[in-house]
Amino acid sequence: MVDKETLFGISEYFASGIGFDGTLKSRISDFLVNEIDTDGNVVHLTRLGVDTPAASEVAPACGRLDPQLVAKIEAFLHSNDANLLIEASEDKNARRLLHQQIDAAFPTHKLLRTPLRDASTGVHQIEISRASSRTPAFRRQEATRMNRSADGASHFLHFILYKENTDTMEAVHRIGQYLRLPPKCLQYAGVKDKRAKTVQKVSVRFRDPQRLAGFNQTGVLIGNIAYAQKQLQLGDLTGNRFRLVIREVSLTDRTRVEEAARSFAEQGFVNYFGLQRFGTTEVATFEVGQALLRAEWAEAVQLILKPRENDNVVTAKCRAVWVETGDAEAALRVLGRKSCVEGFVLKELARKKDDWLAALQAVPRNMRMMYVHSYQSYLWNLTASYRIRELGRKPVVGDLVYKTASHGDAKRLKRGADAEAEVTILTEAELEAYSIYDVLLPLPGYDVQFPQTPVTEFLLDITRKDGIDLRSRHKIKDYSLSGSYRPLVTKPRDVRWEIKFFDDPDQMLLLSDGDVLNGVSLPPSSAESGSYMALIMEFNLLASVYATMAIRELMKRSSNVLSKFSASEPAEEPEGNALPSDCFVQDVGDSLDEAASAPST
Fold first, then answer.
1. Which CATH number is correct for 36-54+153-228, 3.30.420.40, 3.30.70.3160, 3.60.110.10, 3.10.150.10?
2. What distance in Å separates the CA atoms of residue 507 and residue 516, rounded to the nearest whole number?
3. What is the pTM of this model?
4. Quick check: 470 and 495 in contact, CB under 8 A?
5. CA–CA separation, 243 vs 512, rounded Å?
6. DSSP classification of residue 397
7. Which residues, other chains included, contact 277 with Cβ-Cβ below 8 Å and sequence gap of 6+?
8. CATH architecture, range 59-146
9. Per-domain residue ranges for the chain?
10. Environment class of residue 411 by beta-carbon count within 10 Å: exposed (0-12), middle (13-18) or buried (19+)?
C-alpha cells in the first residue's frame, strides 16, 4: 500500500537515524499550541474577563465630552423623546471632534447623529436619535467610524481565545453570534489546529468589553480583553509554541528517543507542507487546484461534488443525488441550508445550469484559492524531495538564497518585488558563506526566480505533464499566482524535552492555560520508572511551518500513522467542507496545526 505522504511529495528525512515508535495526539490534552506574537512573546490566557479599564474610565484621544452635554444626552436616553438637538460649532473640525466625543462617551448606545443647519439662523446643530443596527443611516455612520481613526482612538478590542477540540473559524463564528456581529468583524493572525488545546489573539470591532467578557461556552474561553488601535491581520504572528506528548513509546527505547530528540533540535527537518494542506478525503485539494489552473471548470465542479467514503449522511446523500441525476436543485434540497462549498456550487448551478465557471466563482474567493495554493504546495514538496535526494544536504551552486545569509529565518517571507530584490542565485565564490538553512525553493508563480539547478527542469517537467504553466498569468485573475519563497530546511527553536514514566495509560501529562485557570494539577509521574513511558516535547516553529512534519523527522515515521485519538476524546471531523452560516471565510491557507502566514497570491 502506498503511503499517503508519498502521494503528496513527502519522502525524505533530513538527518540520519532510525527514530522510534510512538503515538501522537492520543488525547486532545496531549497537543497544546500557543501563538507567538509579532514581538516574540508566547501568548497565554492568564485571566478571564477584562484587562482594560471600563470605557468610561479611559480618556479618549479626542478628549472628554463636556459634562453638561453628557448629562443632557443621558436625560434624553431616559426620556420618551424622539430626538435631541444640540448646537454645534461653525468650525468643521470642531464639529468632527464633537461627533467623536459623543461616540467615545456613549460607546454602547446606538445613537444616530444627523448634522443639521437651521434655515433661518444658519446655526449648525446635531440631531441625536435612537437607532438600531438595521437602520441604514446608522450602519453608514458606523462604517465611517470604523474605517477612520479618531486621532488614534482605540476602536478595537484585542482578546485571548482559548479553545479545545474546536477549529478557529467555528470558535470565531460562535463569538460573533453571541455579539451579534458578522464573523468578518473578528480577525486573527492564523488558524490553529482543531484537535488540540490552543491559544491565540483575536481582535474585534466592538466597543463594550464587558459584553464580550460575558461570553462563556463549552470548549471556548476568552479573556485578557484590552483596547487596541488596530485590528489583527492574517500573518500578524512570529510562529507558535508547541507542547506535546508522544505516548506508547517502548520502555526499551529510551536511548534512541534521547538521540532522536538531540538530533531534531540540532539539525531540524525538511520544511514540507503537511498532509493537512491537501485535505482528508480521497479527492485531494490539489486535484481541484489542477483543474482550476487548466481552466477545466466542469472537471473542478465534478471533483468538488464527487462522493467521499467519510462523508456524513447528509453530504453523502447530496453527492449521490448529484452523481445519479445531475439535478442541482434536487441535490441542494437534500443539503438544506447548510453553508458549505458544495452548497455554494449547487445553488449557482440551480440558477444557471451548466455554467460551471459561475458555480465555482460562487465559492468564496479564499476557499477557491486554497485549492490552487494546494497545488503550489504539492509542487513544492515534490521539488524539495528531489533537491534533498539528488543534490544532497549542503548548498550547491545555482541554489536560491537571500542575499544576506541566514535570512531564511525571517518571521515572514516577502513576496513579489520585495522578495525578488532580496533573493539571488548562489555562486561558487559564495558557497562557504551559506548553509543549507539559507536555501530557498520557490512556490512557483509568474513573479519568482527559479534555481539554476536540475530542480527547475524537474519542476517544469511536472507542470508540463499537468498541462499547467504557472510562469504565465492565468486568464482568470484570481488564479494568476505570483509565487513566493520557502526555506528548504528549518530548525525548531527553544527545544526542550523530558521523558516521563507513569502507571495510568490515560494520565494527563501537560497543563493547558485553561487547565491552569481551572485549578487543575498534574498527578505524580516519575523520571525513572513506571509501566508506561512518554516523551514530552516543547519547541517553537515559525509561522507556516508544520508541527506534524517536525514530529515526522523526530520519530522517522510517516505522519499519516502517528496520530490516534482515544474513545473518550473523539476527534470529530467537520461535516463535508462545512463553513458556519453567513461565514466570512478567512484563508486558512496552511495547516490546521500551524498559524498560517499570508498566502501567496
1. 3.30.70.3160
2. 16
3. 0.77
4. no
5. 9
6. T
7. 8, 285, 374, 377, 546, 590, 591
8. 2-Layer Sandwich (3.30)
9. 36-54+153-228, 59-146, 278-366, 382-456+467-487
10. middle
Q: CATH number for 382-456+467-487: choose from 3.10.20.340, 1.10.287.110, 3.30.1300.10, 3.30.2350.20.
A: 3.30.2350.20
Q: String of b and e for 384-402 (b: at least 16 CB within 10 Å)?
A: bbbbbeebebebbebbbbb
Catalytic residue, candidates 30, 103, 167, 193: 193
Q: Are strands 269-270 and 400-402 parallel, antiparallel or unpaired?
A: unpaired
User: How far apart are the C-alpha atoms of 532 and 254, rounded to whole Å?
Assistant: 12
Contacts of 239 (CB under 8 A, 6+ apart): 36, 411, 540, 541, 542, 543, 545, 595
Domain 278-366 sits in CATH at: 1.10.1510
Task: Dump pLDDT digits (tens) for 345-361.
Answer: 999 999 999 899 999 99
Asked about 193 being catalytic, the answer comes back as yes
The reported pLDDT for the residue numbered 60 is: 52
Q: Kindly calculate the radius of gyration of the chain based on its CA atoms and give it in whole angstroms.
A: 27
- Average pLDDT (211-221) is 87
Give the lowest-confidence range in 161-170, 206-215, 217-226, 448-457.
206-215
Sign of the torsion angle spanned by Cα atoms 255, 257, 262, 266: positive
Please name the amino acid found at residue 330.
A
Which candidate, 14, 6, 2, places its Cα nearest to that of 550?
Answer: 14
pLDDT over 90 (residue 98): no
